[in-house]
């Protein structure tokens, strides 16, 4: 029995090498960078995966084909996550393909940087719209589906899982990026509030905060030796993160191994939030 205070039940689906076997996942912004690595890791763990993309159907379809070769179902679903109608259509297509959803990974994000005096309202609204409102719209649609469908104890102890990709800038202020830092700080409290609101329904909502990860979004910070050396002054662990570092954290958080984890952010940052300026004693 899936009792309130019972020990985790064990079965083939949970003890095997594919801890997400039978689960259905949607990853936003999954045709590149962190999202692509997350989607692949979820597929390797046995989940069927919907690969959301905003633009670039070819890359998204290539990713879906790669994941299908791992023995799961995978579909590419286009949507700009900042648009309510497109998010609703994306969920409808995903549910048509898979029947339901167990895992949402809110990953899509972008930067539009400028000093505050030069930042346009359009830049502010676009970054908040994608990074924060997009996560809200997707989380709302996922919660509606989790509650409509009810428990699936054969695949997971939780009614559903939502993983919100934020950033170390959910806590570190970032001059010249006020729209981005505000969006990620917003994601943090959105995540915690939803976790509080939904824990009684056994829906887990968690955050993953990447540090500097080698992806297109921050190419300028790592693609020359000078830039890389400068970046290392911010990272106590002295290496850049790879998308697979984030994918491993997300996969664990989405699995029953993390069933008692909700409302918290896992920082995957090589120590970037450890005040590296104090490394030598300050
Ligand atoms: P990326 O640019 O490769 O990935 C972002 C993805 O989001 C892209 O596939 C892009 O097409 C998609 N996207 C953008 N706008 C969208 C929209 N309106 N609708 C749907 N999809 C949209 O960069 P990444 O580093 O893989 O970023 C993934 C997430 O990780 C972002 O939320 C980013 O803020 C966060 N992050 C990245 C780093 C890093 O160092 N790379 C650090 C902290 C946080």
What is shown here, in short?
The chain is of the alpha/beta class and 282 residues long. It has helices at residues 12-15, 33-44, 57-68, 84-98, 121-149, 178-198, 225-232, 243-254, and strands at 24-27, 48-53, 74-78, 103-106, 160-165, 203-210, 265-268.
If you had to describe this structure to a student in words, what would you say it looks like?
By secondary structure, the protein is α/β, with parallel strands linked by helices. Helix content is 40%, strand content 13%. The chain contains 8 helices and 7 strands. Strands 3-2-1-4-5-6-7 form a 7-stranded parallel sheet, with helices on both faces. The longest helix has 29 residues, at 121-149. The relative contact order is 0.14. Nicotinamide-adenine-dinucleotide binds at residues 28-29, 31-35, 52, 54, 80-82, 107-110, 130, 165, 167, 210, 212-213, 215-218.
